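Entry: F-box domain-containing protein
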Amino acid sequence: MSKLNKDILFLISQELQDDSISLFSCLMVNRLWCETVIPILWRNPWCYDIDYYNKNYLFKIIVSYLSDDIKEFLTRQGIQLLTVSRQLLMFDYLSLCRSIDAHTINIIASIGSSLAYNNFILQQEFYNLFMKKFPELKYLNMSTIKHQIFYFPEAKLRFESLCELKCDTSIDSSYFYGLARLCQYIQRLIIDNVDESSDNHDGIAKLIRVQKNLKYFEWKDDDTLRISRPGRDPYKEIVLAIENKVDTINHLKLDFNYRSPTKHDVLPKFYKLKILSVSFYYFSEEQLKMLVYRDLEIFEIDCYELKAAYFIIENSGGHLKKICLRPPYEIDGHVRNFDDNSLIFIRKVYERCLSIEYLPLIFPPLKQHFSEFEKLLKICQNLKSLLLVIHANDVIPEENQLLENGEELLEILIRSAPTSLREIRFIGDVKFSLETLEEFLEKWRGRPALSIITPNYILGEKKYKKLISKYKNNGVIKNFSCEFIENVVNMDFKI
């Protein structure tokens, strides 16, 4: 491995760019590996899962680039610089960097001083340095930023290349006006709505409108957000701004806490969407029929919006690979026609989603639903991961009914699961007896190894551990994990 061709080594390192532990380990192999990995680590050195409060070396590296005059000025202010000579550095680190994360910069600057003023001027010198040293700026997370860095002399050249911006609504509109003047080729824009004092988003709307190649747009309301102006659409400016980008946006996520009539009118216009995450709770059936996304590959929707989900599936172009049903998976009396809608949802999947790979299903333990589920397994031959939620609507099942539900599910899976299936997740009104589970695992032998994820209440008892261990050792089970429900239902959670 240590003698890999440099180009091959670079491609491998690229694949590990989100795996900080592996990348940091590669630094220790030899000089070639180190020279290959350092540029990847320093593209965005603020993104890794490390404790920046205690990483003095990052602080020292940045300070080493400051001029002697600036160092002297900062020292007079009482800031401890912990300097290191530039001559001792193996690489020109800042020339490799393409990103800024304001929150992490705040943390690193606090190493020099905890005083607010000193922290402020040190951050300003850091940003000024970045504008001079970075060859280009690709990513900016400006949440909590206190400096209008687009006014620095070299900022225009840096911001012209900005591809991804993450921000929040606590930032004054004037900041977005400044960005709109310089940044017109942002491809990914992620906004956290945290400010309940205002629904005036003119600055953000202006920034959206000037973009020429916006492909990814995400808006997320903070869970604690309270908007106190009923009768108004608090998202109108934003929705109308993204309406102008229907020709370029292919990934749209709108996580609104409140109703947006404007959204109802605009969403049908996004004909190029490949990824969609939005709530359709207030949509009428006529409005749902207007949602036609022929290129859609992934969509996310609340678990109780099965009717909206099957309308989207019906009008899709047959390219869907992943569906996500958001929790909490608690269907109560306010959800109309759950039994019928869940049945139609299953049917629409096997009629329109032959390419589906990641699929959650929520349905009651009724004979017709089990039958349609088995039909789906026989038709959808590309399935890789299944989340199965058995929900006995308005009924608290007894223990024997839970075991019967589990037995029925496992029998269907053995008879009809496609060979592509690698992972099954279970929650809801279902349990498995030790005998039923062993029979299932024995019959699974000879297929690709299976990963199983459940909450503790389904398979967490001690008596199952020996059985699970046996089938892990002989290759029937690849991974087994009892997790919190939040992890079980998160289709991006890996074990």
